[in-house]
UniProtKB/TrEMBL annotation:
Residues 146-346 form the DUF4921 domain. InterPro entries: ADP-glucose_phosphorylase, DUF4921, GalP_UDPtransf1, HIT-like_sf. One of its GO terms (molecular function) is zinc ion binding. GO terms for biological process: galactose metabolic process. It holds the Pfam family DUF4921. Coiled coil: none annotated. The active site is at H183 (tele-ump-histidine intermediate). This is Galactose-1-phosphate uridylyltransferase. It comes from the Bacteria.
Length: 356
């Protein structure tokens, strides 16, 4: 009896896993393990938030938005001008976080602080239907979204003093989407984001030590280990990362080593669109339509110094984070996130759900 109690006392309740790229530790709290289906809480229905009635994206221009910068129809064909057949349109954000010409860097110093004017741009990629998000798109419809991202990414990258182009999609109130209507955002900003800077430094360190891309190494190991793959096609692979920061986190990597999002060909764009819509579809079915964020991580840009050529060690990818937990005191105070399901079990659960 005594022996049994002693054994229970030393039972592992959690394990810490370290990300070789960011250097961050996460906690996989297996001792608090829940069954995969207990994460399927779906999002909290809020009729006023979800209502189509006052939605400004039903008819963006009638709601006072500028005419679109770019329009695609549902067959992913670029349209010369806006018509009734639009499926995806890109407009300038009416309430931008970054705006104005960026011909030079507007820096000043205030006491011990550095202040940089928020020059850059902030655009919105609006999907046509109020209740149809990327997970329910056809292959061509999803392709229109990736085309829109990439076309804007390539244009904004050429602007002076843009250091990073951030592409992200918030879905649901819990994920911080102010509007329910499906939309993504694209921001061109004058600094390299800290998260990206740390990952660049981490992947460079690995490259210097081993002369290999850490991401390519991780992908090769995931294929061999075969426990955390959610979906794969010819050009892309979706996995629940070994070092997941949240339950059901998913990353989608191009199989071909590329540091920047900018260089995809037509075929790859199609496969990327499929990987994204199918992965989101699995997540939606598995977790009963959860709120989520996804974003693209790619190498920074510095057109003045052609800096984007300086990151051969980086490997662009998409990160999907469903809202399965909130940051509380431990996470905020330590920067260590706790995930309550093993990524191996999350991936196994996601694989069960078929999306065509
Ligand atoms: Zn709407
Ligand atoms: Zn790579």
């Amino acid at each position: 009896m005594k022996k049994k109690i002693a054994k229970q006392l030393v039972k592992n309740v959690s394990e810490l896993r370290r990300d070789p790229v960011s250097g961050d530790w996460v906690v996989i709290a297996t001792g608090r393990a829940k069954r995969p289906n207990t994460f399927a809480q779906g999002h909290q229905h809020d009729p006023a938030y979800e209502s189509k009635e006052n939605c400004p994206f039903e008819n963006p221009q009638v709601s006072g938005n500028d005419k679109p910068i770019l329009v695609f129809d549902h067959k992913a064909r670029e349209m010369g001008k806006l018509s009734q057949d639009w499926f995806v349109q890109v407009i300038p954000n009416r309430f931008p976080a970054f705006a104005g010409p960026s011909v030079k860097r507007y820096v000043k110093h205030v006491g011990p602080y550095t202040v940089l004017e928020g020059r850059g741009s902030h655009e919105v990629v609006i999907m046509r239907e109020h209740t149809k998000n990327i997970s329910s798109f056809s292959s061509l419809e999803a392709r229109a979204v990736i085309y829109a991202y990439m076309a804007r990414f390539n244009i904004l990258s050429l602007r002076p003093n843009v250091r990073y182009v951030s592409i992200f999609h918030n879905f649901g109130k819990e994920a911080g989407a102010s509007l329910y209507h499906p939309h993504s955002q694209i921001m061109a900003i004058p600094v390299v984001p800290p998260d990206v800077a740390r990952s660049l430094a981490g992947s460079q360190r690995y490259f210097q030590e081993k002369s290999k891309c850490v991401h390519c190494e991780m992908i090769a190991w995931e294929k061999k280990d075969n426990q955390r793959i959610v979906f794969e096609n010819e050009h892309f692979i979706a996995i629940c990362p070994f070092v997941s920061r949240a339950a059901f986190e998913i990353r989608i990597f191009p199989k071909k080593h590329e540091s920047s999002f900018k260089d995809m060909g037509d075929e790859e764009i199609g496969k990327c669109a499929d990987a994204l819509r199918i992965t989101l579809g699995k997540l939606e079915k598995a977790l009963a339509n959860p709120d989520y964020n996804f974003f693209i991580h790619t190498s920074p840009i510095n057109i003045e110094s052609l800096e984007s050529h300086f990151y051969p060690h980086y490997h662009w990818h998409i990160e999907i984070l469903p809202k399965t937990a909130i940051w509380a005191g431990f996470e905020l105070g330590t920067g260590i996130e706790i995930s309550t399901i093993k990524p191996e079990n999350a991936a196994k659960f996601l694989r069960k759900f078929n999306v065509s």
